[in-house]
Amino acid sequence: MPEQERHGRDSPAGGRLRGARDGALGRPAPGAWRKGKLRDLLAQGGGMSLRRAFTMVEMLLATLLLGILTTFAVLTFDAVTKAWQVSGEYMDKNQRADYALRQVVSGLRSMYYPHDGKQDARYGFVLQDNGEGEDAKDSDVIEWSKTGPALVGTESAVADTVHRVQVMVLEEGNSDYREPIAVTGLYARQCPDAALRPDDPEADYSFANADLYQPVLVADGIVGFNCRVLASNEKTQSKNDESLFEDEWAQSNSVPYKVELTFRVEDPDGRRYRTHTAPLMRIVRLPVYEQSQDGAAIPGMASEKDAAAAGARRGGGGVLRGGRP
Q1: Which of 3, 130, 207, 258 has the smallest C-beta neighbourhood within 10 Å, fewest atoms?
Q2: 198 belongs to a structural domain
Q3: Would residue 149 count as lying in a domain?
Q4: Backbone dihedral region of 31: left (phi > 0), alpha (psi from -120 to 50 degrees) or beta?
Q5: How many Å apart are CA 314 and CA 325, to the nearest integer?
Q6: Which helix (DSSP H) or strand (DSSP E) does residue 242 occupy?
Q7: Number of domain units in the chain
Q8: What is the rounded average pLDDT of the residues 27-46?
Q9: 3-state secondary structure at position 121
């Protein structure tokens, strides 16, 4: 091929002419295959990068959702577990408080008062009003004479004899007695009947002697105690005699017609029952009310006239509660 013809083919003008001719004939331009392949590779590479980035976002979202669901599951399980524990503790405390309340009710129904024709302060019901009974510091103290094992136990030396008991709520750490109080709860003290105490005028055998009679735990978890009294049966005609109960009882030589007992139980999660749950309450009719009014009435008499008639039938003689001479 002559040099001039070869020069014309390799010149830019020649290349443009060939490109135009190939395009008119439908032929691919020289190098088009390589350029198209490169574009395909670039497109494929870019698509792979986009797909990989989208997959990472999906993984991050899935991980985030899994973490949120796991957190909610753990929190729900923890809340259910705590609720179960609090509920169990609440039921346990209420069972112990109910046991203590039944013990006090049994002790009040076993109250003793002599039939000697006169009132005797040594056997009267004593109420020390310290407040509303929201906690141990403003809880009431009650004291009475009784028989039987209630509050003292069947193995106690005084269970089969007349004895006096004192019931109160004491706070943990209280050091008013011979030994400090270990746990907050309802406590009872016991002492022999006045007739059974040693005859020593210089010694104090009453409950005023804090070193002589150590309080015994009846039930823990009770943080407050309130007692109110219905003085006589003259007010029982009212439809709602609970409104007539009083916080004070000054007649220490007799016993009231009824007493209202209110126990406040410690809340498991620290809240106050006075704002969230009703306290345990019981009203007790005292069986020796009639005889404590004149010292001669038999328990259960409807009126003083019946009591006087019973006294006349027995010839003025005195008998103990339950018909024992």
Answers
A1: 3
A2: yes
A3: yes
A4: left
A5: 11
A6: none
A7: 1
A8: 55
A9: helix
In whole angstroms, give the CA distance from residue 247 to residue 263: 15
CA 171 centroid distance within chain: 16
Domain that holds residue 111: 89-313
Amino acid identity of 128?
Q
In a domain, 288, yes or no: yes
Distance, CA of 297 to CA of 57 (rounded, Å):
92
Type of residue found at 123: Y
- C-alpha distances in Å from residue 298, one per residue of 26, 254, 283: 133, 14, 22
With respect to residue 182, please indicate whether it lies within any of the assigned structural domains. Answer: yes
Q: Look-up: residue for tokens 């395009």?
A: 23
Tally the residues of the chain: 325
Average pLDDT, the chain: 75
Whether 114 contacts 102, CB under 8 Å? no
Instruction: Look at the block and give the residue holding tokens 């007790």.
Output: 284
Q: 56-79 pLDDT, tens per residue?
A: 888 888 889 999 999 999 999 988
- Answer yes or no: are the C-beta atoms of 280 and 313 closer than 8 Å: no
